[in-house]
TrEMBL record, chain A:
Protein name listed in UniProt: Acyl carrier protein
Protein's organism: Marinobacter vulgaris
Domain Carrier positions: 2-77
Protein location: Cytoplasm
Pathway(s) per entry: Lipid metabolism; fatty acid biosynthesis; Glycolipid biosynthesis; KDO(2)-lipid A biosynthesis
GO CC entries: cytosol; membrane
Biological processes per GO annotation: Kdo2-lipid A biosynthetic process; lipid A biosynthetic process
InterPro entries xref list: ACP, ACP-like_sf, PP-bd_ACP, Ppantetheine_attach_site
Lineage: Bacteria, Pseudomonadati, Pseudomonadota, Gammaproteobacteria, Pseudomonadales
Function: Carrier of the growing fatty acid chain in fatty acid biosynthesis.
Pfam families: PP-binding
Family of the protein in this entry: Belongs to the acyl carrier protein (ACP) family.
O-(pantetheine 4'-phosphoryl)serine, modified sites: 37
Keywords noted in UniProt: Cytoplasm, Fatty acid biosynthesis, Fatty acid metabolism, Lipid biosynthesis, Lipid metabolism, Phosphopantetheine, Phosphoprotein
């Protein structure tokens, strides 16, 4: 079984069309990985499905980096 | 222009323009789910569509919970809709000076806010599929204005504005959003008019006749097709030449 970090990074790569080598924990979805606002919405949708959880909109807006997403998933699943 | 296997949701499909739209989409191969506000309406839709794999459901588009429940049932049974036709609508006509706030609210809610709800509910599936068609039924009066219909005209003009914005939001996901604005079509809604109203209407329609529901449905079917992929944010008039704004 992959770790949360590996699974989050895999989804980030798939959703944003970036290479694994480009994705660091500190990477910002928008500034470093080139996501637009709709990409970030879809990324959250994909995370919800992968981890079978619901991320409320007000929490989703705070997820700006890969580490933010990992922390949220670890704390809520 | 085949729609083979695509799941389509048509609101207000028990009669009039909606019924015709459901029929044409089903004829082109889509699995069509039509909504009605009553059990009897939903059963009628099932009767009309069952030979093509479609069916009717009860859904109240003015109620978010009813939409969620309906969408969930449809998705479990048939898969997530990738074609949405927002057709359900009501009128509560009166001069503004006599219009009750309830009549204003009901028309805005059923004709405009409902589209916010249904569109939001289906976009997730469309975004995942990287393909979607949202077609909103507007009206010629959105552009022309019409005395006695400030609520209806406001709602329909709102629909057209929303169409343009949502089209821009979703364009790079393969999802198009368009409106069709019928003029006077031969349905229950126009049968309510008396003879003098009818005569007045004919005098402003260059084609000299009412439109048929089929003539609106054909345009909707085109917008739902793969061939229409580069048309988005548009409102297409289907009105026999009475208004071209």
């Amino acid at each position: 079984m992959s770790t949360v970090e590996e699974r989050v990074k895999k989804i980030v790569c798939e959703q944003l069309g970036v290479k694994e080598s480009e994705v660091q924990n500190t990477s910002s979805f928008v500034e470093d990985l080139g996501a637009d606002s709709l990409d970030t919405v879809e990324l959250v949708m994909a995370l919800e499905e992968e981890f079978e959880t619901e991320i409320p909109d007000e929490e989703a807006e705070k997820l700006a980096s890969v580490q933010d997403a990992i922390d949220y998933i670890v704390a809520h699943t | 222009m085949s729609l083979e296997g695509k799941v389509a949701l048509v609101t207000g499909a028990s009669r009039g323009i909606g019924r015709e739209i459901a029929k044409v989409l089903a004829d082109r191969g889509a699995v069509v789910i039509g909504t009605a506000t009553s059990e009897a309406g939903a059963e009628g839709i099932t009767e009309a569509l069952s030979s093509k794999g479609g069916y009717g459901i009860v859904m109240n588009v003015s109620d978010a919970e009813s939409i969620d429940a309906g969408l969930k049932a449809v998705t479990e049974k048939s898969g997530a809709p990738v074609i949405l036709v927002n057709n359900a609508g009501i009128t509560r006509d009166n001069l503004l000076m006599r219009m009750k706030e309830d009549d204003w609210d009901a028309v805005i809610n059923t004709n405009l806010s409902s589209i916010y709800r249904t569109s939001k509910a289906v976009l997730r599936g469309m975004a995942k599929a990287r393909w979607g068609r949202i077609i909103n039924i507007s009206s010629v009066v959105a552009g022309m204005g019409n005395p006695g219909q400030v609520n209806y005209c406001a709602a329909k003009a709102g629909v057209e504005g929303m169409t343009r914005s949502l089209a821009k939001e979703m364009a790079n996901r393969g999802i198009t959003v368009n409106s069709v604005a019928p003029g006077f079509i031969d349905t229950d809604m126009t049968k309510k008019l008396d003879d003098s109203q009818r005569d007045a209407m004919m005098s402003v329609i260059p084609a000299g006749r009412l439109g048929e529901p089929e003539e609106v449905a054909a345009v909707v079917a085109f917008l739902a097709s793969q061939e229409a992929a580069y048309v988005t944010g548009e409102t297409i008039n289907v009105n026999g030449g009475m208004f071209m704004g």
